[in-house]
Structures are given as structure tokens and as C-alpha cells.
């Protein structure tokens, strides 16, 4: 690793700071338009030491001096912070990283260094250079390190130094791999950080916790002037006591209409559960948002211009010689090919970049067409607590064309293929709301499903497939008909788990035994909330537990339903039956998450009992050992070691009593308790675990609220998709509801049920009229 010789194209010129700011402004769009924060926030830089990343570091130092209030995403920029990752794949990398740190200090940039521990990733004794996919693993670990540092520094914008030549090489590699026009778009200028899908606060999550913090990154609260304006508007609109109004109005006014206006989709509920018993409402669930965004502002600058920028401003950089080995990676081979050989004109950089631009425009046009089709679809019901979605798809009609085009079979087939592809894009958007999978099928692979859901788009001469249940991307499509011959609808749910597929499982560690040993269960203290963990690709869950033993979040199984019901009280049993029948009928209920324990916690919750007596505890731990028959016997050497410490100073009569109170005996008893707890856990592995709660339904065994709390959120969804969830057509309009409120209020005033809060001022004309009389 050394300084690169000054080899640069003669026509290349350095990148000006204002030019770099324009590229940043076009790349870093606001994420939260209602953010009112005016405090400067740092931006993170991914630095490797090459010429591209060092040019990025230099240009980032010129942002604030060029424009003091320049915004990256949502915040004005303060000083940049650099993150350097030591991959530790060859000798001398520590010295190379030190050189990069010194160069960044010369630019007055504070830098953090992270080293990848390959022993933790691959296991001890495994040489990472012998692993065939080491480049993929290095990329994964690099992004996870970068995401962790960005979250800890509270900077949600990460800039990378990918440039125009990298874009060209990426498109060439995808062209060689057989990608379609969607893959030939190349790298996107802005995207969520990859390889961090299960890390909360880094990938599409963390916004809610940020708003709860004392100093949030995003400030969406209104300022004083806006609050005054809102309060004035509310005071003018609601000039009477709402609580008194609701209390007196409930027995006599349109209770049904008000309930219908703000309840869930009644048609769907009546179709799901034809029962007179009302089901309790589901607990509210928040949707996650936020996370770290990766921006690539140098995609429109060639490497020659980056070299010229460093040369003109005396910025040192360092070259990694492994990038010149064409046998190491496919990117190195492609770089060697286009730099040392003259490619056909269609494969040269200008032609490939124009191809990528055309592909981006085509994809944007198709996505816009799919969004317009989505606006005509009706989504009357979406319940994240159960993962169900009801959609009424629009009737697809081909647009009118000229007579000559309509008579052409080739033209009609081309239009059918295009509109069927747009319909597949619509289905892909709907699938993304329910699916547990991270990577969805391409729209071309949804052709059969599109023909089933849109029969008018079937190929000529081919009978469209009949509507029937269909599973794809982990989503179960179920056809349904509403009552009274309502329009045809589809129910989308999480697909039931196959018998040969392992169930998703997310584990949470029990509190440390040191804080529980020797105390009654009601004296146990929790160690605080656990971190959020991703379950089944859909839910972020965290727990606050005082219970012994590890807890697991697993699917609600049929074998656990009967013992769970028996443990509930009568009211909870009725609520569970009504909620399962209404919100999760059939096999949908067996996709709900449940909190399980391998340790029987009934004695802890109900009787405040857990630890065994001393005689039973003596069978375990440091004072006992298992023999060949699996029985516990006395370990004489352990007792002799503890007794020998005080045997010389104390008599034989008091040795046994003092041993129980010595620190060594406490440590031995603690080991015994740990061994006993592990043993009862192992003995329950053959038995089904104990179901404690169904968190998305809010149902749990009695008394659990004093021992276990949870918080569950749904993963981030596209805001445009959430806006498609419409209310029912028979729901009263807002103007109608307001008129009903005014009429009821006047009726209660005339009948004397309530008194006006403000008396009407007497007009001057009325005063003169009374005096004349």
C-alpha cells in the first residue's frame, strides 16, 4: 500500500465544492419533510484510504464552509465523521490503517476504527483467506460495522465513495450475469444500508425510540407559534365540554353510526365471524421507520476527476494492490478487461451509462403506472397484529387504441404482456405488506398469479386459471366473497408454516442468576429492557422480564392452544375465543407470535416459590457430580478444598457451620443453583414449552403482567401503501358527522341536559328594542 503515482487524464479537472454540493442536493432528498430540526448533525463517511474515499473526505470538509446551512437529508451538516474498517485479511493492515487515520487528521476529520473479528464470524482456527466467498463475507461484516458506528454516533446519513467507474463495472458484471433491465440500472444513489436487516435502529427502524429520547435526531414537534395556532383553532371548534357532551349524548344519539365510523371493516368482520359476541379490539401497533441511509454522491464523477481533486488539493491517498489482481474477484477481472482492452462501442462506458439511464426511466415509468393502478384498488382492511390484508382489485380494461393497432395480434399480445406486468408490480406491492421474506420474487415470476387475479389479462386462447388459494413469497392468497354478493375480494395472510420447515424462533436471555439466587421471586429485579429483535421478518419485539429461564418467541401451535386456555381465567377465555374467531380464523391463528418459556413459571407467578430446599440442591453443582449411572454423588475433592481453607484455624465442630456462610460456600451454592436450573430446563426439552402470552392479541396467563412486559412493532412499510388502506364506503362523511354533533348538541341545550359554556352576547339591536318596549 503506497501513494499512487499521479497518472490522470489530461482533460480531467478537479471537483469544485459547489459542484459537490449540487450532487449532494440531488442525492440526499429529505426523509421526513415535517422535520423542524435546525441543529447541525454530523455525517458519516465510509473511508478505505483509496483515492475515491479520500476525495470524498476532502470535499465533505468543504460543505459547511461553502454553505453553513446546507442540508443532507433532513439536517444541516456539521463536521464529518469517518469510519475505517480493518478487514484483517493480509499482513500490514494495521500500519495501513494508521496511515489513513493520520491523513484524515490532516483534514481535521475525527475517525473511528473497527476491526473485523474473523474468529467470531468463521470460528476459531479458520483462515479467512481460504474461504471461497470471503469478499461477500467481508462486505457483510463491513456494512454491519459501519451501521453500528453510525447508530452509536446518532448519524443516519452514511456517504460512500462509489463513482462513475464503479457504476460502469457494476453494470458490466450484471450484464455478464444475465440481469434484466431492472438490474441494469446499476447502483442507486440513495438506499437503505444493506446487510443489516436484523439490526434494530440501523435498518428501517429506530424512529420511535428516537422520538422518545431526550435529544431526538428528528424533531417533528411544532414550535411555539404553531402550537398557539393549533390551540386557537381547537378552542374555536370545540367550545363546549366534550366529556359532558359524550356522557349525555351516548344514551340518545346515533350510537351505531358513530361506532361504524371509527371501527374496522365491518363487512370483513361479519364475513370472518358470524357471531353475536363482540370481540375486544386488538392492541394498537406502531410501524417502524428510520434507520441509516447510504448515499452515493460521486456516481456522476469519474475516477480521473477524483484523482485530479486529490492532486490539486495535496490530499494523500493509498492504493490497495489486491485491487489489481484479476484472479481475485470478478470486479477486478472486469476492471482489467475494460482498462487494458478496447471493447466494442456498445460496451464502452458512455454507451453502458446511457443504457442504465434508459433502464432507470423505464422502471420509473412502470412504477408510476403501478401506483396509479394501486389508487383504484380498494384495501378496506389491513391488520398488522394478525398480518392480514383484504384487497378488492380493480377491473383491468385495456386502453383504446387505433383501429389498425387493435387488429394486429402482435400489438394486442404486446399490450397484454405489458399490462400483465404492471398488474404483477401491483401484486408485488401488496405482497410486501404481509410477506416475511426479505427478497421478493421478480414481477415476471408472478405471471400466473396475475392471470388468476386479473382474468381479463389472460393470453388470447388460454383459459385463465380459476380463483383458488395460492401461496407465493410466504403469502397465502385466499379468494373470498362478501355477503349479499359483494364484489370479489382477496384475503392475504402469512402462509402457514410447512411441516418440513423449521419454525422461526427469537430468543431472549433470562436475568442473571446472581441477582436471583437466595431471594424470593417477588424480590427479583429486572436488568432492564432487552434490545429489539426481528421475528419472522415482520415484527420487532423486546421484553422486560423478571422470570427465570430463557424466553422464546415462536409461532402459536395447535398443541399449545388447549393448555393455554386452561391457564386463563373465564373472561380471558371468552376474549381469546372471540378474537381468534374474528381476527385470526382458521390457520391464520397458527402464524401469530407467542412468548414461550422452557421453565415452568406457574409456581413463581402464583405461589412465589422457585428455589428447591438444601437437600435437593446438594445433588447439583460443585459439591456433587454424576456417576456412570447418571446419578449425583458426593464430590469429595470439592468439599476438601473448601474445608482446608479454615480447618487449621477452626475446630471440627464449627467448620461445617462456618462453611455454609463463607464466600467459597456461596459460590458453590450459586453453581449448584445454576446446575439445578439448567437441569430442569433440559428435562423440559422433551415436553412442549409453556405458552405465556400472545402479544399481538394482548392475551396472557393471569398474573404475568407483574413479571413480564413486551413491546411489539411492525416493520417499516411504504407510506404510500399505508395510504391505500381506505375506510368503508358506508362510513358517514366528516361533514355528516359534524352536522349530527351540532344537531345533538342543540337538542341537549334545549332539553336542559347540558349548560352552554359561553353565554351568547346580547346584541345592541336587541337592547334598543327592549328599551323601546
UniProtKB/TrEMBL annotation:
Protein name, as recorded: tRNA(Ile)-lysidine synthetase
This protein's record includes keyword Ligase: yes
Enzyme Commission code(s) on record: 6.3.4.19
Region Disordered, residue ranges: 638-657
Annotated organism of origin: Podospora pseudopauciseta
Catalytic activity: cytidine(34) in tRNA(Ile2) + L-lysine + ATP = lysidine(34) in tRNA(Ile2) + AMP + diphosphate + H(+)
The protein's enzyme class: ligase
Keyword Amino-acid biosynthesis: no
HAMAP family reported in the protein's UniProt record: tRNA_Ile_lys_synt (MF_01161)
InterPro entries: Rossmann-like_a/b/a_fold (IPR014729), TilS/TtcA_N (IPR011063), tRNA_Ile_lys_synt (IPR012094), tRNA_Ile_lys_synt_N (IPR012795)
Biased composition range(s): Basic and acidic residues: 638-653
Keywords noted in UniProt: ATP-binding, Ligase, Nucleotide-binding, tRNA processing
Residue ranges annotated for the tRNA(Ile)-lysidine/2-thiocytidine synthase N-terminal domain, each copy included: 43-193, 290-336
Taxonomic superkingdom: Eukaryota
SUPFAM superfamilies: Adenine nucleotide alpha hydrolases-like (SSF52402)
